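anyone seen this seq b4? input:
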Amino acid sequence: MAGEVSPLGRGDEVTPSGEFRASHEDRDRVAELLRVAAGDGRLTPEELDERLEKALTARTYGELAALSRDLPAAPGLPTGTVPAQPKDMIRIECGSGSARRDGRWLVPLRIEARVTSGRITLDFTEAVITQPSLHIDASVRSGTLKLLTRPGIVVDTDEVAVRSGSVKVHAPWGPDVPVFLRIQVSGRVGSGGLKARPPRRTFWQWLLRRPRPYALSSAA
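predicted toks r here
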């Protein structure tokens, strides 16, 4: 019929995959991979800024691929795949036992953590992070809420009210590391504790005198 257009474009030519147009989601995925790489020390702040600018204005898959060709995939986020959408909120309640999120878990937009006398551990060292911020609404009575972090993660506890408990945040990598996730914690700590720090050495790492994880400064 007159006026019809071939779905392949002109004639039977097939567009190479690298020339397909990129979506906003594709650009965001590569931008996140770049931020993770910078947090791991693979890119300098200058390189991160330069590549992020190119990623956010890239038009094709080929342009995006060129920005991450010399980088490994982010933990839990293989190159060339689109991550699942994070949940808006998850609720974790712990009485006298323990609850843990670790490995390649998908970080939501918000977490409600309730600790009575047990322990909740949120391990972000291998977590899949798809957004730049996370809000944690914490209620700690006599237990412990622990956040295990890595370079590029900033924890803000200024909005936490403390009675007789304690709040401790330890980030030994210093202010020069590019930030890819800001964790804003609010709520209350009774007689328990809220801790944010990198993971400690295992017994075998200590025995072999291996350095502490992320010990990038004398404060480690």
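The radius of gyration is 21 Å. Strands lie at 90-94, 98-101, 110-115, 119-123, 133-140, 144-148, 153-162, 166-169, 181-189, 193-197. kinda curious what u guys think
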